[in-house]
TrEMBL record:
It comes from Phormidium tenue NIES-30. This is Cofactor assembly of complex C subunit B. Pfam families: CCB2_CCB4. GO terms for biological process: cytochrome b6f complex assembly. The chain crosses the membrane at residues 12-31, 43-60. Keywords: Membrane, Transmembrane, Transmembrane helix.
C-alpha cells in the first residue's frame, strides 16, 4: 500500500503550469496570422517563464522526493511478555513498546536480553524465539546500534526470521548488558535521526531497569545462601 504524499500536488504544480503556459503560447502563435513586434516580445517572455516553471518543477521532484512506500506487515497483532518478570518491569516494557508503536514507523517490537525474549509486541512472526545472527551478535558485542534502512538488500536479513517476513527496515539498538531492542518498520528509510536518538534513550532506560532487576535477584540469592 503506497503511503500518501501530502506535497504531491504542490510538487506537480510548476510542471503543470509551465506545460500549460507553453502550450497556450504555441496555440496563440499558430492561430495569429500576423504578429506585431510587441507580441513577439511577449511570446519570448512567456516561453522563458514557462521554461523556468518546468525547471522548478523538475528540481522540486529531486529536492522533495516522494515518501517511501509502506506495506502492511504479514502476521498477527499481539503482545507477549515473559511471565517471570516482575510486574513493574512488565509494565515498563509494555509502556516503552506502546510509545514506539504509536509514535514511530515501528510495527513490531522485540526485546531480547541474555538469551531470552522478554517481549514481542505489534505484528508478530510465527517464530517466537530470537536466534542471534551475525548482525545482532555484533550489536551485543560492540554496544553500537545497527540500522538496516532497506532490509531486502542485505544478505544478513535471513537472521531476522523472528520478525514479519516482509519487514522493510530494522533497527537493532543495544540495551544494557547483553540486551537489544529490535524494531521492525513497514517502510524503508523511514526512521529519522530524531527517531534514532529517541529509540536510543528508551533502550538505555530499559537496560538500566533490567540491570537493576538482575542485581536485585543476585543480591537475593546471596542472602539466601548466607542464611
Amino acid at each position: 500500500m503506497a503511503q500518501n504524499d501530502p506535497n504531491r500536488v504542490l510538487r506537480l504544480l510548476p510542471l503543470v503550469t509551465g506545460g500549460l503556459g507553453g502550450t497556450l503560447l504555441l496555440l496563440n502563435r499558430v492561430l495569429t496570422p500576423a504578429l506585431t513586434e510587441s507580441q513577439a516580445r511577449s511570446d519570448v517572455m512567456g516561453v522563458i517563464l514557462s521554461a523556468l516553471l518546468i525547471l522548478t518543477g523538475l528540481l522540486w521532484q529531486r529536492v522533495q522526493p516522494t515518501l517511501p512506500e509502506a506495506v502492511a506487515l504479514i502476521g498477527k497483532e499481539g503482545l507477549e511478555l515473559d511471565a517471570t518478570l516482575s510486574d513493574a518491569v512488565q509494565t515498563e516494557l509494555a509502556w516503552a513498546s506502546h510509545l514506539l508503536l504509536t509514535n514511530t514507523v515501528t510495527r513490531s517490537v522485540v526485546v531480547y536480553r541474555q538469551g531470552k525474549t522478554l517481549l514481542r509486541r505489534g505484528i508478530l512472526s510465527p517464530k517466537a524465539d530470537v536466534t542471534p545472527g551475525p548482525i545482532l551478535k555484533r550489536v551485543l558485542e560492540t554496544g553500537k546500534a545497527v540500522y538496516l534502512v532497506k532490509l531486502s538488500i542485505y544478505p544478513g536479513r535471513v537472521e531476522f526470521d523472528y520478525l514479519p517476513e516482509n519487514t522493510q527496515g530494522v533497527i537493532c539498538q543495544p540495551m544494557g548488558q547483553g540486551g537489544a531492542l529490535i524494531l521492525a518498520a513497514n517502510a524503508p528509510r523511514s526512521y529519522t535521526r530524531q527517531d534514532e536518538a529517541w529509540i536510543e534513550g528508551i533502550a538505555d532506560k530499559l537496560g538500566h531497569s533490567l540491570g537493576e532487576l538482575a542485581w536485585e535477584e543476585e543480591a537475593a540469592e546471596v542472602t539466601v545462601v548466607e542464611s
